[in-house]
Design goal:
The protein is α+β, with helices and mostly antiparallel strands. It is 56% helix and 7% strand. The chain has a four-stranded mixed β-sheet. The chain is globular, with a radius of gyration of 31 Å.
């Protein structure tokens, strides 16, 4: 099996000294290098990095075990190869760990071997690439999860065996440590599943005490890392999204169906056989069956409750797949037990192994292509010279101003759409966006800035609001985060940045433009223009975001304090409880100066601004300490504020009280480990056993419980307890699932689509109540108005839309809302008011598609309207963007007219090939393959070297197949696979040809 797996992972690239690419994986490599070169030499496993998100504690809120393994491995091989091997460690271990889990549970032969074999369909499942556990998820960056999932199987098997025999406390504590140190999600699941071991007729208190000892010792071992993580969680950003599953095939993928069906039917068979033959096999078989089915129940509970716990719900679906796999193996093991009477049980293992390999081999999906893409590395990509040149032009260190990059999938040509997150690795410079977005309190502000400088924005935190492309609005926020350099890729962003006077084009590299913000002061530490204002609040994250999105407030910084102070106190001179009328008191700075030096975990400041408020543009964390100032304050948006007391000030990141408490607990755990190691020279006893003997206490420390009811009462207690617990958990899960605001919103969308408008509005209002000023809340407010509009209840619709404008005056929905208000006014007979609203829309939101539509409605109602310029060379970019917007919103007929006009009249226009390809794609979406062939053929003829040619050949192949010309279709697909192998269409063509 290991050979089969490695063969499919493009092993020829695993041992090359290149830096791995692919999804999130590409950004993890910097973490490994930082751990080896900065943290470990300083005696740290986690520490501060200024590289992303205005600084954050790296490996404090992510999991170090796999990175430590890679670092150890790098002592004998290169760091690049060690990283590659570390990313597949969990994948290679999973079959072995599945074997050991069932072996430890004493499942009958050949169940352990079958469990290993049946992990192949699980690993090669390609229905998802982000949930965790399978190979594609590991390639996408979830390799720590894969390692921890594998280790958790050994833990679950060892706990099952150890709790029943009251053995392996130390071993299991070490396993808990390894699982938790490699991924927290898997530890939560393992802990929950182990609760099944408390369901017993006898020995409940002994088992409870056993699990208590295991988890207490494990907590001590983890405490040096876990205590700060738990305490400082409030200085992270919650990512509690509710995943939307669109198809049953995502949960029951075809490659796993035979395994899951075997597990289901096999479980039923084992249960019936176990009940009938309870004295022979039932006691063991039913206990194992219950353990695994309890695990399935925990998958459901965690999927439902995950948003409440602040974790991602979808991460627990792979555990459902894996436990279904183990159920199938266990069932086949008991079948082998039954077949043993004829001495043919041995045949099951080779049959299942061969069947699993053949079945999986025919459905490996894109694994090999992804492996090649990841492991050939950055340096092997055709675009490496461009990427390298960009980094060389930006080269510097952390004292240089930050770099921001436009979010774009086009970066994937370098190896990952997140390639520029590794600017600290390749150029030495700090950037804003990064991989570990939950680890920093600055993440929401970073993504807000990103939405203002990117055509294609990323909005990962639904609880916050975002903006749209606007470099004028972005300028003060970029200055606040000390951003000087911008990397721009999309044509739309390039055009937008040229409309602002504060930016200067510095260089062009391939399709990329490097810009500078000319108004930035290029300082990380500077004196505030206005006195900071004390702002008492228990919801400083929400208040800070509200402050950040309102540029009129940015000049007056808030200093957040938890306690409800009644007056300002030195050194502060102002106090406020709301942002409506913040006092603006100028700071008398004179000619004082500030100079700073930024290192990995230290900021050195030289200043003569004694007693003046200095803003330090680095993310706040309680582990920042200061010398030369009284203390470090948390100030808006997420930065530090100090009042220097001497000329030389030193800020440094280091352990605090909670870290020391964690260290003491870990030392305690290590002592417990040492005294439980058998002493070979003393009859194999441990130091603890010898000490316990002298102290006249039981070595196990299990107290004697006098609770000893009869067997009948034990059964009653057990049944009642299980029923009460089951009903309570089921009720909690039901309420939690249906009250989650994200799910309430998604359900309301479904009700709207079914035209159940009253129920939909109720759901949207509930979502708005819970979601504050987030994007989802704004969406809900919009759909309330739309449901009234669809019912032709115009006055209610107008009131709902006006309410949205009042609540969210900066919402991206405003132009569309204004347009619908105008429509409602027209429809209700208020012609004059409707025209006024449409004119207002065109004046306040020019250039939007809603302004274009407003002009159409004004003409229809014979109202005066500014005549729109016809398509010409000067406004072609504008009309191209309108056409793209029509296409993106499925206004295909309107888009078709513009794309046809642009591609026909302006063949030399830089976007003509894109217009022609988009025109062909419009026809393809309309299932008109004849015209698709015409326009893609024209694209190849007119622009034979254009980057869109692979797309054209690919669609020529698809359309010929649809038109009944399979040979011709395969010819086109073969051509794109052969001539353009490294493009997305080349990879899709190879997959289709299989």
């Amino acid at each position: 099996m290991e050979i089969f797996i490695i063969y499919r992972l493009s092993p020829e690239y695993l041992l090359t000294n290149t830096i791995t690419t692919g999804g999130d994986t590409a950004s993890h490599y910097y973490t490994l290098q930082y751990l080896r070169d900065v943290l470990l030499p300083a005696g740290q496993v986690s520490g501060w990095t200024p590289g992303n998100y205005a600084g954050f504690p790296i490996l404090q809120f992510y999991f170090p075990l796999d990175f430590l393994f890679m670092t150890l491995l790098s002592s004998i091989i290169s760091l690049q190869v060690a990283f590659k091997l570390g990313t597949i460690a969990g994948t290679l271990l999973l079959p072995i760990c599945a074997y050991w889990m069932l072996r430890l549970m004493r499942c009958p032969f050949p169940a352990p071997g079958i469990a290993a074999a049946l992990t192949l369909p699980f690993l090669f499942n390609s229905s998802h690439s982000m949930w965790g556990g399978n190979i594609l998820s590991s390639f996408a960056g979830e390799f720590s999860y894969s390692l921890s999932m594998a280790l958790s199987l050994v833990l679950l098997g060892s706990l099952y065996s150890g709790a029943r025999r009251h053995r392996r406390v130390v071993t299991n504590a070490i396993l808990v440590f390894l699982v938790g140190f490699s991924h927290g999600y898997t530890l939560l699941f393992a802990e929950a599943m182990s609760l099944y071991l408390l369901i017993t007729l006898r020995g409940f208190f002994e088992r409870l005490f056993y699990l208590g000892k295991v988890y207490a010792l494990a907590f001590c071992l983890l405490a040096f890392w876990l205590v700060p993580l738990l305490i400082f969680t409030r200085y992270t950003t919650s990512y509690d999204i509710a995943w939307t599953i669109y198809s049953i095939k995502e949960v029951l993928p075809p490659i796993l169906l035979p395994v899951l069906l075997t597990g289901t039917m096999g479980s039923l068979g084992v249960m019936i056989w176990g009940i009938r033959a309870h004295a022979e096999i039932g006691k063991e078989a039913l206990a194992m069956l219950g353990y695994l089915w309890f695990g399935l129940a925990m998958c459901v509970v965690f999927f439902v409750a995950a948003p409440k716990l602040g974790v991602v719900d979808i991460r627990y679906v792979p555990y459902g797949h894996l436990i279904g796999t183990l159920l199938a193996a266990m069932s086949l093991g008991w079948l082998g037990q039954y077949l043993r009477r004829w001495n043919i049980d041995w045949a099951l293992l080779p049959v299942i192994l061969v069947a699993s390999i053949v079945w999986t081999g025919n459905q490996v999906g894109p694994v090999s292509d992804w492996a090649k893409w990841n492991y050939e590395g950055f340096e092997a990509k055709a675009t490496w010279p461009i990427f390298e040149q960009i980094n060389l032009k930006l080269k510097g260190d952390f004292s240089d101003p930050r770099v921001v990059f436009e979010h774009s999938e086009l970066h994937n040509s370098f190896g990952s759409s997140r390639a520029f997150e590794s600017l600290p690795l390749f150029s030495g410079r700090a950037t804003l966006e990064g991989l570990y977005m939950q680890a920093s309190i600055s993440a929401p502000f970073v993504f807000y800035i990103q939405s203002e400088i990117s055509q294609q924005k990323s909005v990962p935190f639904p609880q916050y609001s975002y903006s749209s492309l606007n470099y004028d609005r972005a300028r003060p926020r970029l200055e606040l985060f000390n951003v000087r350099d911008l990397i721009i890729r999309s044509d739309h962003a390039k055009k937008a940045i040229r409309l602002s006077e504060e930016y200067a084009l510095r260089d062009t590299v391939g399709e990329y433009e490097l810009w500078e913000l000319t108004t930035n002061r290029n300082r990380y530490v500077e004196v505030l223009d206005y006195e900071p204002v004390l702002f008492p609040t228990s919801f400083w994250k929400e208040e800070s975001h509200r402050w950040f999105v309102d540029e009129s407030l940015l000049g007056t910084h808030l200093v957040f304090v938890d306690k409800d102070v009644t007056r300002e106190f030195p050194p502060f001179k102002a106090l406020a409880r709301d942002m409506e009328n913040l006092p603006r008191m100028p700071v008398e700075t004179g000619n004082c100066s500030v100079n700073e030096r930024i290192d990995n975990q230290e900021i050195r400041i030289e200043t003569d601004c004694i007693g003046k408020p200095l803003l330090v543009k680095m993310s706040y964390h309680p582990n920042w300490h200061v010398e030369g100032a009284d203390r470090v304050y948390l100030t808006s948006p997420s930065f530090m504020l100090i009042y220097p007391e001497q000329r030389h000030v030193r800020l440094y990141y280091g352990p605090g009280l909670w870290d020391r408490i964690g260290h003491v607990l870990t030392v305690t755990g290590l002592i417990i480990l040492l005294i439980n190691i058998p002493l070979g020279w003393w009859r194999g006893n441990t130091a603890w056993q010898l000490l316990a003997e002298r102290m006249h206490v039981r070595p196990s420390l299990v107290p004697h419980f006098k609770f000893n009811p009869g067997i009948r009462n034990r059964w009653i207690i057990l049944i009642v307890t299980v029923i009460v617990a089951g009903v309570t958990i089921a009720q909690f899960s039901y309420v939690t699932y249906h009250s989650n605001p994200n799910r309430v919103y998604n359900n309301a969308i479904h009700l709207k689509d079914e035209k159940r408008f009253d129920e939909a509005r109720e759901g949207f209002r509930l979502a708005m109540k819970e979601l504050g000023a987030s994007d989802l809340a704004q969406n809900a407010a919009y759909y309330i108005g739309i449901t009234y509009y669809l019912e032709k209840r115009d006055q209610d619709a107008i009131a709902a839309f006006e309410d949205l404008v009042r609540r969210y005056p900066r919402s991206n929905w405003i132009p569309e809302v204004e347009y619908h208000i105008g429509l409602c006014l027209y429809r209700s007979g208020q012609e004059s008011q409707g025209s006024d609203r449409m004119q207002q829309l065109r004046k306040q939101h020019p250039g939007t598609r809603w302004a274009e539509y407003a002009g159409d409605r004004l003409r229809e109602h014979r109202a005066p309207v500014e005549v729109q310029a016809s398509l010409n060379e000067e406004n072609i970019d504008h009309y191209m963007s309108i056409a793209i917007d029509h296409f993106n919103h499925d206004r295909l007929e309107e888009a078709k007219i513009l794309f046809q006009d642009i591609s026909t009249r302006f063949p030399d226009y830089s976007g003509a090939s894109q217009a022609l390809a988009a025109l062909a794609l419009v026809y393809y979406k309309q299932e008109n393959c004849e015209m698709t062939l015409v326009h893609y053929g024209e694209l190849i003829s007119r622009y034979p070297k254009d980057k869109l040619v692979p797309e054209a050949y690919y669609h020529l192949g698809l359309c010929n197949e649809k038109l009944g010309n399979p040979d011709k279709g395969r010819g086109y697909l073969s051509r794109v696979a052969r001539d353009y192998p490294d493009t997305a269409y080349g990879r899709q063509a190879r997959q289709r040809l299989r």
